[in-house]
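tool_call: predict_structure(chain=1)
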Amino acid sequence: MEEGQFLPIVEEFYSIQGEGVHAGKAAYFLRVGGCDVGCCWCDEKRSWDAKKWKMIDVKKVSQRAAQHPAKSVVVTGGEPLMWNLNYICKLFDNYGIQKFLETSGAYPLSGTWNWICLSPKKNAHPLSDLLQCANELKIIIETEEDFEWAEEQAASVPTTCKLWLQPEWLRSQKMIPLIVDYILTYPQWSISLQSHKYMRIP
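tool_result:
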């Protein structure tokens, strides 16, 4: 398990990416169990306890991902970087699958990735290495104070990094107008909406 040959898999499914730069594109989603970041508004709290999920041979996972037309996989969680992802990334490479990581950045990077979406959280600050290799930065806006947190994180990512502000789903009606006003003033940011939830896509 330490070598990443088995991972606690919460779910696997083929669907449409709903957020960020690659929104609207087909991908195979792999949700890895285990997370100690503990966001109160997390919509995947079931993934937190890795012991609840069966340890799956990642060779079988890569084979299932390769069966789908879109040769891309989104590895999410939970917090996937709690696990060694070097081995599964090599398997995906063998199938010519592009690899997209979604992480809070609270754990050291493992695996090689075509794209890293970093969504840092206040209660588990991201490591500097993760900030420096982020392709897109996604900040969840739950309160007005989160805009200051967003700017602090944006100061540490590459200048090429795409900057997103995303309303926390349950407070979206209140936060969207604030995000819109903020982006009109600071246009280096864009708004990210969880379009898959609006369209009721799994």
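agent: The longest strand covers residues 6-16. Proceeding to next step.
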